[in-house]
Amino acid sequence: PIWGRSSLHLAVQTGSVEALRLFFRHAASSINVVDQQGRNLLHYAVTAGHVNLVEILRLKGIQPEAADGMGMTPLHYAVECHHLDMVRQLLQLGASPQATNHQGQTPLHLAVGLKGRAECVALLLNMGKAAVDVKDNEGLTPLALTALGGGDDAMVQILLQRGASLHVCDDAGRNLCHLLAMSSSGDRENGDAENG
Questions:
Q1: pLDDT(112) > 70
Q2: Which of the residues 20, 119, 126, 187 has an alpha carbon 20 to 30 A from that of 88?
Q3: 162: exposed, middle or buried (Cβ count in 10 Å: 0-12, 13-18, 19+)
Q4: Measured in whole angstroms, how far is the alpha carbon of residue 35 from the centre of its chain?
């Protein structure tokens, strides 16, 4: 293994369908092999954007819910990498938009934390039926994260249309109005100190 990656990881990362088929035909390699960070072959296919490999891996029995050492599922990575076709395909395969990483963040939390991801947010909510008011480990909902990030209007509209609450408070007792005020003044740390 190179840096904890098997030959199968490298074949998937490079997108080699033929190498992958050859491995499965002639080697006794496990579909569930992971690298040092706990990432499996599907994590590699997703981050490299190889949509064509996802179906091959699924047919071999790979689990779309497998989390790596940070609790990140392939769907988390597809959102983070902004691979919309991959997000769509993983949702069709049954990947859960409710899965949380070690920070308590769902793929929706990641999508709203990145500018220009309104289409991804809509996919997670409409196709994946993502929970709109789920809190991360800091008690922040996707709408609260959007507010802290400067309030991307398209994302705010999508979240509100899907029933996001304006009244949910984070773990420090701050509601959306508090967070918007802090965001516009660039004063998140001060708000934390005042509430801590």
A1: yes
A2: 20
A3: buried
A4: 19
List the structure tokens of 6.
Answer: 């098997």
Q: 142: exposed, middle or buried (C-beta count within 10 Å: 0-12, 13-18, 19+)?
A: buried
By three-state DSSP, how is residue 2 classified?
Answer: strand
pTM of the model: 0.86
CB 88 within 8 A of CB 59: no
DSSP 52: H
Three-class SS of residue 131?
coil
Three-class SS state of 5: strand
Report d(CA 6, CA 11) in Å as an integer.
9
State phi, psi for 48 to the nearest 5 degrees: -85, -10
Rounded Cα distance between 163 and 94, Å, is: 23
Element spanning 190, H or E: helix 188-195
Which residue is listed with tokens 């779309």?
Answer: 64
DSSP secondary structure code for residue 71 in this structure: S
